[in-house]
Amino acid sequence: MIQIYDTTLRDGTQREGISLSCDDKLRIARRLDELGVTFIEGGWPGSNPKDAEFFERARDIPWQHAKIAAFGSTCRVNGGPEDDANIQALLEARTPVCTVVGKTWTLHVSEVLRTTREENLRIIEKSLAYLRAQGRRVVYDAEHFFDGYRADPEYALETLRAAVKGGAETLVLCDTNGGSLPWQIGEIVRKVQAAVRHPLGVHCHNDSECAVANSLAAVHEGAVQVQGTVNGYGERCGNANLSSIVPALELKMGLRCLPEGKLKTLFEVAHFVAEVANLAPDEHLAYVGKSAFAHKGGIHVAAMRRSETSYQHVDPALVGNQMRVVVSELSGRGNLLSKAEEWGLKVGEGTDVAAVLNDIKALEAKGFSFEAAEASVALMFARRKPGYRPPYELVDFLVAVEHRSGRGLFAEAMVKVRVEGEVHHTAAEGDGPVDALDAALRKALAGRFPQIADLHLSDYKVRILDGKNGTAAVTRVLIDMQKGKRRWSTVGASPNIIEASWIALVDAVEYGLTLADN
Amino acid sequence: MIQIYDTTLRDGTQREGISLSCDDKLRIARRLDELGVTFIEGGWPGSNPKDAEFFERARDIPWQHAKIAAFGSTCRVNGGPEDDANIQALLEARTPVCTVVGKTWTLHVSEVLRTTREENLRIIEKSLAYLRAQGRRVVYDAEHFFDGYRADPEYALETLRAAVKGGAETLVLCDTNGGSLPWQIGEIVRKVQAAVRHPLGVHCHNDSECAVANSLAAVHEGAVQVQGTVNGYGERCGNANLSSIVPALELKMGLRCLPEGKLKTLFEVAHFVAEVANLAPDEHLAYVGKSAFAHKGGIHVAAMRRSETSYQHVDPALVGNQMRVVVSELSGRGNLLSKAEEWGLKVGEGTDVAAVLNDIKALEAKGFSFEAAEASVALMFARRKPGYRPPYELVDFLVAVEHRSGRGLFAEAMVKVRVEGEVHHTAAEGDGPVDALDAALRKALAGRFPQIADLHLSDYKVRILDGKNGTAAVTRVLIDMQKGKRRWSTVGASPNIIEASWIALVDAVEYGLTLADN
Q1: What's the mean pLDDT in A276-291?
Q2: Which partner from A188, A268, B68, B484 sits 20 to 30 angstroms from B24, CA to CA?
Q3: How far apart are CA B175 and CA B192, in angstroms?
Q4: Residues 355-394 in A contacting B (C-alpha not used; CB under 8 Å)
Q5: With contact defined as beta carbons under 8 Å apart, do B185 and B218 qualify?
Q6: Which of A13, A213, A283 is the closest to B182 by Cβ?
Q7: For A212, which DSSP code?
Q8: What is the predicted pLDDT for the residue at A339?
Q9: DSSP string for residues in A192-204
Q10: Mean pLDDT of A76-97
Q11: Which of these ranges, A45-49, A450-454, A470-474, B72-76, has the smallest mean pLDDT?
Q12: At what angle do helices A211-220 and B211-220 cross, to 10 degrees?
């Protein structure tokens, strides 16, 4: 059993652009506990007062699997833990586990701590011993271990021995600057194990794009704990990515690290964390990316249809992901048909597939992209089917955003549609121009289509395709609409962001009123 | 000297969302040649007719460093290369190098090719021998080599021997499904080298997030060629990332792979390729990401100021990148001052730094993010400086987008500003609402500030912060404005995308009229 030590809530939040509220942190912690990680590092109470609230509230939660850990550094030089604010903050967090980081690298001892090698050994041992005496389990993070070992192996080992004397249950070797390569990590872990017989862990950063490989190399040499973050979030190039490490340990190295049956929730957890952290999920992540098992190349798709395993390193279902066929301008008829199948579209009854393919290519040339907009493609199939009648036609629209000093900001829209020959002309306000258009369109259609009230606009994404043209650049809009549990995506593109949004919105509603129920 | 074989233009374009015109491909190829890679794989003439034009036009370019390669597969089973359309397309590309991919894995021989092991060996040897006879240098890509070797090592070696008989100058072992781990790659490369004494290369995919480590492991065991793509673009999780592999080879393994002095252009090349491929650069990429050497955590920044090397694995200048200090809500006064220094802001003359810090935190709570908007921060400093007078005040604005059947789409804006007590009230049209606002604002200010004509809006980015609220979500807008070579960024955020854009636009112009020249 390998210990998974998650530091998404501490080291992960060092990533540029991440900022988590206390509620966000608790939501993520609950999901990590459900996933079954061994430790959840909640924060650094000594450096970030906001974290105190997290530990306060975490205490009342009945954790099923995980132990909550608080992070802090060794006490000040020439001082004792008992009167050290940072160590006291660790105690006040009242977590079962305290993780203490100390210096390994002589450069840091002299340049950053500005003290002697002996004093550094003293504060490591004393800080840990003090927390142990208060009944805490103590994990020791040896900062810059690999750089420090390269500079002075004997002193690096002494710092570990000081930590063992202090009562550390695990010695975590940190590649803090992320500069090491896998065989270097492997060799040093092997030597440390021979010199210091004590459970080892590893904490890697991704500055050489080797953090996952480095973590796996350490486990391959006998490390029993891996520290990392969901999706590899972290400062600079990120921390070791647990979303890639956990499946490798379980599926490729045969090492259990999660409770039975939890691995298949990984995709969901990875996306949940991205959502709460308010970051667009990286679709190209190993195992958990939406594209991780997506096939675009023509031959690949042909081969896939003959032998599923021939182009997949693992079964996507094992991590809760799925195989996808991508529609793109590289696609032939084969991809398009697989895609139609995948979406359960009834093709064939006189549908002109070649015409649909041409429609797609023409729109892609204008900046549309259908890879994530299956509902738009479904509508294109439907419109090429003899006898399809759209539920409504758009006549006109007008949207205005106005700022008047003293009175503030307004967004209003007017929409005119024709339903079975009859014109409906309405207006509405909204939080912004697209919101106002959405409201006006619903008003215009509500009479003939009361079920429109069940359609819920659940996501709205905007991408500027060619920054070089400034505000005249082509804008691509993706809209997700929902009806109960059913969810679909549509796309629009135009140099005018309002028009792009309008196209996606109109398709999303048309799909909801026609095909969503099939 | 390690050979760098770039397949950005072939395997890289398999990434979802990438589509390159022939001009794009030629622009990228020229930059790769300047960078000094050994081979540039331009495409697959047999599968993608559009590539024929690339090879046609590439012939007239005087390449300084790189050899152009065309990619194709072995000839059809039970046929000969002389009447094989795909092999003939390779010849017609008239490149100095042809790269031929063949089957290693018995599963693929029987399931995908549906032929015998002997016939597969025959088509490998014959296809290569035919191209050699036409005077081409031939690289052999052994598809699924590592999976194939695990399934049947002896047959995997036979396919390589067939390629050697056919005249391959290099045997490239491909981890096509990207499922291998570094020590597995290392061990197999070692064994292959012992069995087949011939120059080896490696072609990895990133499905285990180990493509970089796997490529380096192969070189560590003696491989002399690495195939990959700029920024790791490629199908699914991408190809091996040359932007991480090249610096590791040169800076960490002491192996030369680029001409003298070229490594420091890597950052520029990586961003150029992202730009041409029309993908937002991943700021967290190793070595070439904007965040790769950015420091956010308070202690780190304090330590950085004491010892530059203590938190950097390599000197960022070696790859053309630079160290950055990040402004964020985690920042203390220290970060903010370092940042101010970095931007050459004159702070201190009575500027209320604490107040600026509070302004930043208040706006970040509303969805602003200043990490990429140094001009907005500079303005906040300026506004907190006694005696700062903004060049103009905004009074009102109105923007309307209108679609009328038969007449099409219009975007118009009205702007009212006050300059030194005098009100200027103007209107203008644009391609979209923000473009119209930009035009109207320029008109309103042109009288008093003719220099506004030199300000050029060079980039416009939109990010929806909280998709869950649909069209009512908070929108963040980043605007880049330029004056000659000087370029600055501003940010705006609001549930109304027009207002968010307006805030960023107004700041960008105010900065351009006041601080840009200091």
Answers
A1: 87
A2: B484
A3: 14
A4: 364, 369, 371, 394
A5: yes
A6: A213
A7: H
A8: 67
A9: HHHHS-S-EEEEE
A10: 96
A11: A470-474
A12: 60
Mark the ranges of chain B whose per-residue pLDDT is less than 70: 278, 296-308, 326-335, 339, 342-350, 371-372, 465-472, 518
Give the domain ranges of chain B: 3-276, 294-365, 393-514
Taking the CA atoms of chain B, what radius of gyration do you get in angstroms? 28
Q: Is B243 left (phi over 0), alpha (psi -120 to 50) or beta?
A: alpha
In 3D space, the residue among B109, B211, B193, B195 whose CA is nearest the CA of residue B151 turns out to be B109
Contact B88, B128 (CB under 8 A): no
Q: Does A278 touch chain B (CB under 8 A)?
A: yes
A222: chain B residues, CB-CB within 8 Å: none
Task: Name the nearest CA neighbour of B332 among B379, B380, B291, B297.
Answer: B297
Distance CA B9, CA B48 (A): 12
The predicted structure's pLDDT at residue A311:
82
β strands within A222-371, DSSP E = 225-228, 294-295, 324-325
What is the reported pLDDT for A223? 98
Quote the pTM value: 0.75
A398 contacts B398? CB cut-off 8 A: no
- Chain B nearest-CA residue for A186: B183
Q: Residue A278 in contact with residue A314, Cβ under 8 Å?
A: no
- Among the partner-chain residues B299, B460, B495, the one whose CB lies closest to the CB of A431 is B495
Best of B283, B397, B497, B501 to disrupt the A interface (most A CBs within 10 Å) is B497
Say which range, A24-38, A268-282, B219-233, has the weakest mean pLDDT: A268-282
What is the pLDDT, as a whole number, of residue A307?
67
Selected residues 47-106 of chain A with any CB under 8 Å from a CB in chain B: 47-48, 73, 105
pLDDT of residue A399: 95
Chain A residues near residue B306 by CB distance under 8 angstroms = 111-112
Restricting to B residues 12-51, those with a Cβ less than 8 Å away from any Cβ of A are 13-17, 19, 47-48
Give the A window 295-334 contacts with B, CB below 8 Å. 295-300, 303, 306-307, 309-314, 326, 328-330
Whether residues B206 and A17 touch (CB distance < 8 A) is answered with: no
Architecture in CATH of A393-514: 2-Layer Sandwich (3.30)
Question: What's residue A329's pLDDT?
Answer: 47
Angle between helices A85-92 and A50-58 (to 10 degrees): 30
User: What is the Cα Rg of chain A in Å?
Assistant: 28
Mean pLDDT of A81-110: 96
CATH class of A3-276: alpha beta
pLDDT tens-place string over residues A331-383 = 566 667 776 776 666 666 667 777 888 888 788 777 787 766 788 888 988 88
Please choose, from the candidates A67, A71, A129, the residue with its C-alpha nearest in 3D space to the C-alpha of residue A98: A71
Residue A280 has φ and ψ, to the nearest 5°, of -60, 125
Torsion of CA B51, B55, B56, B60, to 10 degrees: 150
